[in-house]
Design brief:
Number of domains: 1
CATH class: Alpha Beta
Order of helices and strands: EHEEHHHHEEEEH
Strand content: 35-45%
Distance between the termini: 33 Å
Length: 156
């Protein structure tokens, strides 16, 4: 059974259990997102920003930048700032299906290994799947997060 991401991500390190699943709310990708991301990053490739080019390309329309999809996916996971210390790494990122304008993406995740690394922090592995509203897998990745331990949060 899947837990709403906000509930799972507000727990202390000690309360997390490998195998627990979560799901985030969705975010719809719009034309503005592609334009703004292109302007912010300098990635103005025509498959993202040029309608004519996109329609003639292999996907029949413009597609979202891969880094945009990853950024939105990370933002959809509502990790409590009192719990999160730092994003440690993104591993094994695979793009499986393009995200198009109008797609609503969400993240389905599972808690993996939870490894204490110090008296104040633990390393939590999250297996994440970015899916669209048609049920297609857009991307998958492993996210490693430094998570504050309960003993630290209680003493602050």
């Amino acid at each position: 059974m899947s837990t709403h991401a906000r509930l799972l991500c507000s727990r202390s390190f000690e309360e997390l259990r490998p195998g627990e699943e979560f799901r985030t709310h969705g975010r719809t990708i719009c034309e503005f997102d592609l334009s703004a991301f292109g302007a912010l990053t300098g990635d103005c490739a025509p498959q993202h920003l040029d309608r004519t080019f996109g329609e003639a390309g292999p996907f029949g329309e413009r597609i979202a930048h891969g880094a945009l999809v990853l950024s939105y996916a990370l933002g959809l996971v509502p990790i409590d700032p009192d719990r999160l210390i730092a994003l440690r790494s993104l591993r094994e990122v695979k793009f499986k299906q393009p995200v198009q304008i109008g797609d609503t993406i969400h993240v389905e995740g599972r808690v993996g290994a939870c490894t204490p690394v110090s008296d104040t922090a633990g390393l939590v592995e999250l297996a994440a799947r970015v899916c669209n509203d048609r049920g297609l897998l857009a991307a998958r990745m492993t996210i490693d997060v430094l998570w504050r331990r309960a003993s630290t949060a209680a003493s602050e």
